[in-house]
Design goal:
The protein is of the alpha+beta class. Among the domains are: 199 residues, no CATH class; 29 residues. It has 14 helices and 27 strands. The relative contact order is 0.07.
């Protein structure tokens, strides 16, 4: 379920949106807090404070971030920081878990490390295991292993001998039924024990940290070493000595690898959510100007004249040649505007994203599913009403009157079958998929946003609609999620993996989708790419951000837009 539109509403003081967000998520928030602090009274206070912070900081929320992740990150930080507060910690003599089942008590109190929290999040939230791992500061594989070990321990203790899925369902039902209703307290001015606790990640000094047991201390040290936030505090005497010996023996090798890595692996390429909205019509570029708070601008390629068209925060900009259509991130609604900036109109009454123009309609994802409307905002129709909580709409593409969409992390590629009495959802590919484009009977997509931080090889993929199979387009790997298809060519921000496993020949590639042949066109990072008949546009976030147009017939001819 996408809660982003609710947080946008909360930022505008819409209490009904706060109530809806609370109704849909407070069981999960309470469950996560309970698993971390192991005290139902403190977990209740953290739940109250979580939604107060949402009210207070909703205007800082970036709609390109998973809203549930953002919400639970607040809960996690409040929980951890509350336990590090000396007064709160001193009051927690023994965790109060008298209002939950044995399964929940075993999950939150007896499992090692964060196994209980991982299991609770898996049972209660819509987060993928990758997102759960990131939230709790684990590597993906480590979180998955902890999850399996935790479930194995719970099944051993279960007298009924439930299956793993039944245990998760039992935990979900019990936490849901035992979670207190604190909505009235959220709206009140009464302080809680965590009213003055930060919901940000704190860099604590050693004398500010207290631990309930040795396992917690070791876990804290492990996390400090992993996150790199306070590595100097992560000292384990004997182990440190052994590591020092190893470092001396291999120092030259490590130095060479690190230097090469710094040259070839730049995390600025992974500025997910910073793709620029851009289109070109008749020699004029219309774009989201990051130099001016993402407002809508135009740039005439011939006269070099730059003009501001709107103060809206522009995302997902598309055009039919006559009008510009975009999502205004300030309110989540879809707008239409003339190319000279005149006659700006809000054409959607509900929040919408993943805008796609097809024939005379604008297709978009809405809070209830997939909708469409005429280009003037009339004849709004809910094409598919989503009633499944585990169904997400990350990206949509309409081809031959058929709506295709991707579900993002672990949720695949689907299409809508409207031939029967009821619209049905059919799955084509069941794994991570983002940024759909259809060309010549193939669906092109990537898995970059799911695996960006893993340093694994990530080629572009295509799914053959006739053969029902998928494979990599070429041996060029994605360096970011930036790609564009024009004519028969695929343009990507890519690299080649060397025999030693490092990245080389990084830049903007052009790949022939028919032959697979590739060529490196531009030695430049690209956070986003757009290609017209005459220019290749490359945007990068490096050095404050820049947008450059390259002549498609002569790459050496460039126009710097900003």
């Amino acid at each position: 379920m996408d809660f982003a539109y609710l947080i946008v509403g909360i930022s505008k003081n819409e209490e009904k949106d706060l109530k809806e967000l609370y109704d849909k998520t407070h069981h999960t928030v309470y469950g996560l807090a309970l698993s971390l602090v192991r005290d139902r009274v403190l977990a209740r206070d953290i739940t109250i404070e979580t939604y107060r912070r949402v009210k207070q900081f909703a205007n800082t929320y970036d709609t390109d971030i998973n809203a549930e992740y953002w919400l639970l990150d607040i809960t996690k930080n409040l929980s951890i920081n509350a336990l590090h507060d000396k007064d709160i910690h001193a009051a927690l003599k023994e965790g109060k878990l008298d209002n939950v089942s044995k399964a929940v008590r075993d999950t939150v109190s007896s499992l090692k490390n964060d196994r209980g929290s991982i299991i609770v999040l898996k049972a209660m939230s819509g987060l993928s295991m990758k997102e759960i791992a990131n939230l709790l500061w684990y590597y993906h594989a480590s979180a998955r292993n902890e999850y399996k070990r935790g479930l194995k321990e719970l099944r051993k203790k279960d007298n009924v001998k439930r299956s793993a899925s039944d245990i998760l369902e039992y935990i979900r039902r019990d936490i849901t039924s035992s979670a207190p209703d604190v909505y009235d307290q959220i709206l009140s001015d009464k302080q809680t024990r965590v009213s003055f606790v930060s919901h940000e990640v704190l860099n604590l000094s050693e004398d500010e940290i207290t631990f309930t047991d040795k396992d917690a201390e070791l876990e804290y040290i492990r996390r400090l070493a992993k996150s790199g936030k306070s590595a100097k505090r992560a000292r384990l005497g004997g182990i440190a000595a052994m590591v020092l010996v190893c470092v001396v023996l291999v120092s030259l090798v490590i130095y060479a690898i690190v230097e090469n890595y710094k040259k070839n692996y730049d995390r600025d390429r992974y500025n997910l959510g910073y793709e620029i909205a851009l289109v070109e019509v008749d020699g004029v570029v219309y774009f989201q100007n990051y130099k001016d708070k993402s407002k809508l601008y135009s740039f005439d390629l011939k006269t070099k004249k730059l003009v501001k068209l709107s103060d809206d925060f522009v995302k997902e900009l598309v055009t039919d040649g006559e009008y510009l259509f975009y999502r205004n991130r300030n309110d989540g609604r879809i707008y239409r505007i003339n190319k000279d900036g005149s006659d700006r109109q809000q054409i959607s009454t509900e929040a919408g994203s993943s805008i796609f123009l097809y024939n005379d309609y604008i297709y978009y994802t809405s809070p209830d599913g997939i909708s469409r409307m005429k280009k003037d905002g009339q004849d709004v129709e809910l094409v598919y009403h989503n009633t499944k909580e585990d169904m997400f709409f990350y990206d949509i593409f309409v081809h031959d009157d058929t709506i295709f969409f991707s579900g993002g992390a672990g949720l695949g590629i689907y299409y809508l079958d409207e031939t029967g009495e009821e619209t049905e959802v059919n799955v084509l590919y069941f794994d991570e998929a983002y940024d759909l484009h259809i060309l010549g009977g193939n669906i092109y997509f990537n898995t970059f946003k799911q695996h960006a931080a893993t340093n694994r090889q990530m080629p572009m993929y295509r799914y053959d609609l006739d053969e029902k199979t998928y494979h990599a387009v070429s041996d060029i790997n994605l360096n970011s999620s930036a790609y564009y298809i024009n004519d028969k060519y695929l343009y990507i921000d890519g690299y080649v993996r060397s025999t030693s496993g490092l990245k080389k020949d990084q830049g903007l590639y052009r790949i022939d989708t028919e032959t697979g042949a590739s060529s490196l066109l531009i030695d430049r990072k690209s956070t986003d790419i757009y290609v017209s008949e005459t220019f290749i546009y490359s945007y990068t976030t490096d050095n404050g951000g820049s947008l450059i147009a390259y002549d498609i017939n002569d790459i050496n001819k460039t126009i710097v837009i900003f």
